[in-house]
Amino acid sequence: MRTDEVRALYDRTMREHARPDGPGVRVERDGPLVRQVGGRSDWNGVVWSSPDLDGEGADAAIAAQIRHCAALGLPEFEWKLYAHDRPADLGDRLRAAGFVPEPPETLLAAPAGPLTGAAPLPEGVTLRRVSDAAGAELMALAHERAFGTDGTRLLHQVVKRLESAPDDFVALVVTAGGEPVSSARMELYPGTGFAGLWGGGTVAAWRGRGIYRALVAHRARIAAERGYRYLQVDASDMSAPILVRLGFRELGATTPYVYRPGP
After folding, report:
1. CA atoms of 71 and 63, how far apart (whole Å)
2. What's the whole-number average pLDDT of the chain?
3. Architecture of domain 113-228
4. Is 192 helix (H, G, I), strand (E, B) or coil?
5. Cys staple from 151: which of 128, 139, 144, 145, with CB 3.0 to 4.6 Å?
6. Which residues pair with 49 in a beta bridge?
7. Considering the domain 3-107+254-259 in this protein, what is its CATH number?
8. What integer is the mean pLDDT of 234-263?
9. Strand-pair partners of 17
10. How far is the C-alpha of 44 from the C-alpha of 80, rounded, in Å?
11. pTM of this prediction?
12. Cα 113 from chain centroid?
């Protein structure tokens, strides 16, 4: 896998020509930017900026996104900045305008085919696909226990996808003794060659037993069967080493810059 070629393909198909990540949202071009726009509980943010963007253009684009956030009354707006985006000081300009950087993530990719091998689960553990609201609640609970965060937004998004656009979405939950211990999602992006892995998290007591790897393998099999060439992950510091051992390659780093309007 040529990382430079795959990164260029990712920039073109997944960012510049991005598609909405769920029902009720839209992707629109705003001058040198591409952004996703939805409701207050959806993800709203910039996914791509022109490689020709200079300092003056960046400042104008940032100001325009702040006005956009205010006009829609959004609780927050994200600018997803990649390390190779231009201008080189774009992160500094975002901070100066009031955007706050969250922990950076590593953009990883791998061919789906080689990841489809057997990955057994521990005894007494069950992996199943989520297909209804009850399963989504278990998934959100596993997410809360794994990451220590509120799963309300995730629950809303999963239920919405299952009801309105399930064909390009996979949600999984892992249970032990009926209790949710892990969950994960996959977004299939038609026409891009990429399937995105999201949300893989396991509660602390069950880590290190192969559950995360099994979730990757299960999603890889679905992606490969559907004709997707690559898996893509925005990986945290916790998951990146595991994924690299499985065969993922680093395409770069990405940092979410979040703007939250004052009261």
Report:
1. 12
2. 94
3. 3-Layer(aba) Sandwich (3.40)
4. coil
5. 144
6. 33
7. 3.40.630
8. 93
9. none
10. 10
11. 0.89
12. 21
